[in-house]
Design goal:
The complex is a heterodimer of chains A (574) and B (248). With 574 residues, chain A is α+β, with helices and mostly antiparallel strands. Among the domains of chain A are: 2-221, Serine Threonine Protein Phosphatase 5, Tetratricopeptide repeat (Alpha Horseshoe); 412-570, Histidine kinase-like ATPase, C-terminal domain (Heat Shock Protein 90), CATH 3.30.565. In chain A, 72% of the residues lie in helices and 8% in strands. Chain A is built from 19 helices and seven strands. In chain A, strands 1, 2, 3, 4, 5, 6 and 7 form a seven-stranded mixed β-sheet that branches. In chain A, β6 and β7 (561-570) form a beta hairpin. Chain A starts with a helix and ends with a strand. In chain B, 25% of the residues lie in helices and 32% in strands. Chain B has helices spanning 13-25, 37-46, 63-73, 90-96, 111-125, 187-193, and strands spanning 4-9, 28-34, 51-55, 81-85, 104-106, 139-141, 145-150, 153-158, 162-168, 171-176, 180-184, 199-203, 206-209, 213-217, 222-225, 230-232. Chain B has a five-stranded parallel β-sheet, sandwiched between helices. In chain B, strands 11-10-9-13-12 form a five-stranded antiparallel β-sheet, with no helix packed on it. The two termini of chain B are 40 Å apart. The chains are: A alpha+beta (574), B alpha/beta (248). Chain A binds chain B through residues 405, 409, 413-416, 421, 423, 425-427, 429-430, 433-434, 452-453, 455, 461, 464, 571, 574, and chain B through 87-90, 93-94, 97, 106, 110-113, 116, 129-130, 133-135.
Chain lengths: 574, 248
């Protein structure tokens, strides 16, 4: 028996909070100007967020200048929230704070009744319900109608628990008839069960069994499995007590089937949830896979970027190197050309030089053997002649070598060079001193017409080299009994002092002069030349003059004579 | 007039003798020949040298330059010198050039070149250029000597031996204790180069050696000098007396 009652109580508990909430009232308050904690409380209340409602309502209550109506509604909302959170004692406290003038006070009474029923305080519940009945009928008949069947059911239930079966029967039947009219199957099943229980408790089995059967039949076609199960179980217990075991077994089986179907449902749920889990796991795996793929893709992307950057760097480096190399190559090719040129010049010089030196040394050898022969024969006149000839050869060889040395030093920029004021007279005298014996020997009349104290700017030693070479040339190209003159003239225009070495020699053709004055390092053998010579002398003169910032000129009339002219800067007050 | 004393620093005996012959022929007095650095320095400080001819290479090393560097360090001992060298190699010249005043002669050289190089060395050393080659001047004045070129021969005259100098047109007549001679030099240049503590101008035409003054006769406007020479003291130059401490 107790098992049954417990099941029923469970059903009732579900029932007590099923009174529909009237929202109209709260929307009325919406018009209030205070958009505040109160307003928020209201919003949370409507959204059934009980905790938030409690917090904001508390804040609102603490606010000063709040009118009674708002305070009542706040307490109501708090009470309701506590009730929904099953904190019944707090709910009761809050409900009690609501004044009786509160328009929805009937609801509070109904709720208080529900709480009392929940707490098994049936007498209290009955008093609340009765109060509610009288108040609601007056104040809020519409609402009363809507909750009438369940309220009367609860009232009946309260009497039932107090074993006041007459009252219980009265209210339950009333509820049953209302529900019958409303065709509210689920509630009807419960009420029928409750009525069954009521009669069964009083051992009025005949009255009870039809209600149980009605509940069972209703439940059979109803979707709620729990109701099916309970009604079937009730029928089974009833039939068992009637000793109609066949029927009892039938109902038991029905109960088992529904229980199983609940279990099946549970199993299905389990399987579904398992499947769901599985699907989720699958999805998770897929997601992981995708993530991994993404990672791989990303890393590949990064790799690609890195590789491209590296490639770019490498390419740039290569480009830079290439440009540099091509620049260097250009420079190298230019240098190579210059080098080749100078090397060719040097090769040519070397070949000409070695040829000349070979010739002159060979001549010296031959002359020396002749000399020895003549010495043995004591032919002193011829010995003297040969000795003079030899000395001439060696001196010209010497000057060739000297020129070579200077040429090389000049090319290597190894020559010490210092331009200073130099007296042209003294220098020509010094050089003349050296050449006098040769002039005499060749019966050449020599004249130095340069006046004393004639100062020019030049490097002394290079001036000497120039002079020696020019005199060498003059000596070479002037025939016996010829004439060589050194003179000077100055030009006011360019402030230069010109030194002229004039000979009465064979002269040089214009063409040859152009060739000689060409600014090249090429050396050529002169056609009209018997002795040694490479053209080195004239090149040296040109280079040395240039280095002295001077001017080099050749004037010549063929078969009459040549003028070699070198100009230097004049010393102003010299 | 005296011959100029030349010190030859040359490691080759033959070259030294050749040079000595040339110098002797041209009335130079070769006072000594050294063939190494130590010997050269010893002779240089012992003897009264007017000019030094230095071969750059003494043996393997350019000790000639070391010698020039050594005598350049002591400011008052340095004398004019000429480097002899057989090549114009830049590396050697860069070092030699630092010993200023710097003059050199390239080997081989003839007589005229040697003489020219010596004259150039004197001119450069006493910073009186283009004197010996010029037509109208031929004297370099140092602190101790007059170097005079007469008939292509250089002589020196000690400034101490000069009693007075008389100016005659473009010439100066130098009267020394022993002799008198004409040189071609302007009075202006003479005054500029002579030490004005030792030589005073007493007259438009006279410069007198302070040490040679024996008596000043203000009444007669005369100055009596050594060897009974007399010069006129003109009114314009009388303030030279202030340079003497007068005993009263």
């Amino acid at each position: 028996m107790t098992l049954l009652i417990r099941i029923f109580l469970f059903l009732i508990c579900l029932n007590c909070f099923s009174y529909p909430l009237k929202k109209d009232y709260f929307f009325q308050i919406n018009n209030d100007s205070i958009k505040s904690d109160f307003h928020k409380t209201k919003e949370f209340f409507i959204e059934k967020q009980w905790d938030s409602t409690l917090v904001y309502s508390h804040k609102s209550i603490l606010t000063k200048h709040i009118n009674q109506q708002k305070l009542d509604s706040l307490h109501f909302m708090r009470g309701y929230s506590f009730m929904r959170k099953k904190l019944f004692n707090e709910a009761i406290l809050e409900y009690n704070l609501v004044s009786e003038n509160f328009p929805e006070y009937s609801k509070i009474l109904l709720n208080l009744g529900g709480i009392a029923l929940e707490q098994n305080k049936y007498k209290k519940a009955i008093s609340y319900y009765l109060k509610f009945e009288s108040l609601a009928k007056k104040q809020n008949p519409k609402y009363y109608k809507s909750v009438e069947s369940s309220f009367i059911h609860d009232l009946g239930l309260s009497y039932f628990h107090l074993s006041e079966f007459t009252n219980a029967e009265k209210y339950l039947l009333k509820s049953h008839s209302i529900q019958n009219q409303k065709q509210d199957t689920s509630v009807l099943i419960r009420t029928s069960t409750d009525l069954g229980n009521l009669y069964y408790e009083q051992y009025k089995d005949n009255l009870a069994i039809p209600y149980f059967l009605k509940a069972y039949n209703l439940a059979k076609n109803f979707h709620n499995l729990n109701l099916k199960m309970n009604t079937a179980l009730n029928m089974a217990v009833v039939e068992e007590n009637r000793k109609d075991f066949q029927k009892a077994i039938f109902y038991r089986k029905k109960f088992e089937i529904w229980k199983d179907s609940i279990n099946d449902q549970n199993k299905v749920w389990e399987i579904a949830s398992l499947e769901k889990k599985h699907a989720i796991a699958e999805k998770q795996k897929e997601i992981q896979l995708l993530e991994l793929e993404n990672q791989i893709k990303n890393s590949e992307k990064n790799k690609l970027i890195l590789i491209s950057i590296l490639l770019l760097i490498v390419l740039t480096t290569i480009l830079i190197f290439y440009i540099q190399k091509s620049k260097i190559n250009k420079i190298i090719s230019i240098q190579k050309e210059a080098l080749n040129k100078s090397n060719n010049t040097k090769d040519k010089l070397l070949s000409v030089l070695s040829h000349d030196l070979r010739t002159s040394v060979n001549t010296l050898q031959e002359e020396n053997s002749k000399l020895l022969e003549n010495l043995n024969e004591k032919n002193y006149q011829i010995v003297k002649e040969i000795a003079l000839k030899n000395s001439a050869i060696s001196s010209s060889t010497y000057s060739l070598l000297d020129n070579l040395l200077h040429w090389i030093s000049l090319q290597n920029d190894q020559l010490y060079f210092h331009i200073d004021s130099v007296d042209l007279y003294s220098v020509t005298k010094q050089i003349e001193y050296y050449y006098t014996p040769f002039f005499t020997n060749k019966n050449i009349s020599f004249e130095n017409l340069i006046p004393k104290a004639n100062f020019i700017y030049a490097d002394l030693d290079s001036l000497k080299i120039i002079l020696r070479n020019l005199l060498d040339n003059a000596l070479k190209f002037t025939n016996t009994y010829g004439k060589i003159t050194i003179k000077t003239y100055s030009s006011e225009n360019d402030n230069f002092q010109y030194l002229v070495i004039e000979d009465s020699g064979v002269g040089i053709s214009e063409e040859k002069i152009d060739q000689l004055l060409k600014d090249t390092n090429s050396l050529q053998k002169k056609g009209n030349q018997k002795g040694i010579g490479t053209g080195l002398g004239i090149q040296l003169c040109k280079s040395m003059t240039k280095k002295n910032q001077g001017i080099f000129k050749i004037e010549s009339v063929e078969n009459e004579g040549t003028k070699m002219i070198v100009g230097f800067k004049k010393v102003k007050n010299g | 007039m005296a011959e100029i004393n030349v010190l030859i620093i040359e490691d080759s005996e033959e070259q030294a003798q050749k040079l000595k012959t040339v110098l002797k022929k041209n009335k130079y007095n070769v006072i000594g020949i050294a063939n190494n650095l130590q010997h050269a320095l010893k002779l240089f400080y012992e003897l009264s040298v007017d000019i030094v001819v230095i071969d750059v290479y003494l043996g393997e090393n350019p000790d000639g330059i070391t010698f020039a560097e050594t005598i350049s360090i002591v400011p008052n001992s340095i004398k004019p010198f000429v480097f002899l060298t057989s090549s114009k190699d830049r590396s050697i010249f860069e070092r030699a050039k630092l010993t200023k005043p710097f003059s050199f002669l390239l080997k081989p050289f003839n007589e005229l070149e040697v003489l020219y190089a010596l004259e150039m060395a004197l001119e450069k050393f006493y910073e009186q250029q283009n004197v010996f080659q010029s037509e109208n001047e031929n004297t370099i004045i140092s602190n101790e000597f007059l170097f005079i070129k007469k008939k292509n021969v250089l002589h020196k005259v000690s400034l101490k031996s000069i009693i007075y100098i008389e100016v005659e047109n473009r010439y100066c007549n130098i009267i020394t204790e022993q002799e008198s001679f004409l040189i071609q030099i302007s009075l202006g240049k003479m005054k500029e180069l002579l030490d004005d503590k030792k030589f005073f101008q007493t007259h438009r035409k006279f410069i007198v050696n302070n040490d040679a003054i024996q008596k000043i006769c203000l009444q007669d406007n005369l100055i009596l000098l050594k060897n009974n020479h007399k010069v006129i003291l003109s009114g314009k130059h009388k303030d030279i007396i202030k340079k003497f401490q007068i005993l009263k």
